[in-house]
Amino acid sequence: MSSKILIIGACGQIGTELTTKLREIHGVSNVIASDINTRNLDLVNSGPFEIIDAKNYNAIKDCCQQNNVKTVYLMAALLSATGEKYPMEAWDLNMNSLFHVLNLAKKKVIDKIFWPSSIAVFGPTTPNENTPQHTICEPTTVYGITKQVGERWCEYYHNKYGVDVRSLRYPGIISHKAMPGGGTTDYAVEIYHEVLKTGKYECFLSKNTRLPMMFMEDAIKATTDLMAADAKKLTIRSGYNLSAISFTPEEIAESIKAQIPDFTISYKPDFRQAIADSWPSSIDDNVARKDWNWSHDYNLMEMTSEMLKQLKKKYNS
Ligand SMILES: NC(=O)c1ccc[n+]([C@@H]2O[C@H](COP(=O)([O-])OP(=O)(O)OC[C@H]3O[C@@H](n4cnc5c(N)ncnc54)[C@H](O)[C@@H]3O)[C@@H](O)[C@H]2O)c1
After folding, report:
1. What 3-state class would DSSP assign to 251?
2. 60 CB under 6 A from ligand 1?
3. C-alpha Rg value of the chain to the nearest Å
4. Which of 163, 227, 235, 301 is the most buried (most CB within 10 A)?
């Protein structure tokens, strides 16, 4: 049986598009999508799909052994804003799911893991601009703590047991297919939907909050490029800094107004402002650029054009 890929948490914002791309690269039947629910019917009906709880070690193991799965992309997690509401659930899901796949690799059931980290590993004591790869990481959110600790475990399993685990510190990801799942950068997706639905948007972050962001196409390219990279070239087994664009709510609104002049934005910061304030405003990703030739394609204006084009099609169909 040819070796297969398993995506855990495939129905989410990133998993939806990652599944499509991996199926393009490896063939539909070689990529098994899984999630805890079948909410995303387009994804569920697009190829092999299984219900798998990421907290259930035996369910992951059985799927891997029965299907000759050798590579796992672990995308299930509780994100930053939801994690602040349910801290113990975030710890439970984010850590146990990671241990399950790390231990399956340690036992040689699987060969390779992708596990996403986040800019949430950084905190208020981290240098705010052009945050380097190696720097102070004192996260103040539960989500950030799980990502920081997760990175330490990834590096530990690589050094101690030779586990081939690869990870990226994703910035806020902007996309038009699945909606985001409870993060602090969700505003940068919601804004495009609201401009087309109502012509206005009330932002939950203040207008000058600058955060690192990335268009989904670039995030998927980074993920597949990192996984295809020669293991010998990888110098980071915790999480690679990854960067594309940084902007404020005011700047994304300006990029929209350039195409839809009547659009208006107002600001009503909520609890997510404190999370955003603890994160860097821009990231230095030179190590990723050097090790596996990472580069991004989309700037803010190009992303806005593509988001509006794709969402107009969606709302008009
Ligand atoms: N989206 C971003 O901007 C962003 C930024 C940084 C890091 N990340 C990381 O990337 C990964 C994917 O993020 P996303 O935005 O696609 O998240 P999401 O919330 O959109 O999707 C997560 C998916 O996991 C599923 N899930 C939840 N509990 C599960 C369980 N017990 N078992 C199986 N599946 C379960 C959900 O149903 C959902 O489909 C996460 O690790 C996240 O921390 C995302």
Report:
1. helix
2. no
3. 19
4. 163
Ligand 1 proximity of 13 Cβ (cutoff 6 Å): yes
Q: What one-letter code names the amino acid at 185? A: T
CA distance 43 to 20: 8
Beta-bridge mates of residue 114: 73, 166
Pairing of strands 112-114, 69-74: parallel
Please check the confidence at residue 1 and state whether its pLDDT lies above 90. no
**What is the 8-class DSSP label of residue 179?**
P
- Written as six digits, the tokens of 20 are 């499509």
Q: Is 143 a catalytic residue?
A: yes
Q: Measured in angstroms, how far is the CA atom of residue 79 from the centroid of ligand 1?
A: 7
Contact 257, 308 (CB under 8 A): no
Q: Which amino acid does the sequence have at 129?
A: E
Contact 308, 316 (CB under 8 A): no
**What are the beta bridge partners of residue 265?**
201
Q: Which of 285, 269, 303, 222 is nearest to 81 (CA)?
A: 269
Residue 228: other Cβ atoms inside 10 A: 9
State pLDDT tens for residues 142-200. 999 999 999 999 999 999 999 999 999 999 999 999 999 899 999 999 999 999 999 99
Long-range pairs for 108-112: beta carbons < 8 A, 24 or more residues apart = 109/61, 109/64, 109/65, 110/64, 110/69, 110/70, 110/71, 110/72, 111/3, 111/70, 111/71, 111/164, 112/70, 112/71, 112/72, 112/164, 112/165, 112/166, 112/227
Question: Cα–Cα distance between 193 and 198 in angstroms, integer?
Answer: 8
Asked whether 118 and 170 are in contact (CB, 8 A), the reply is yes
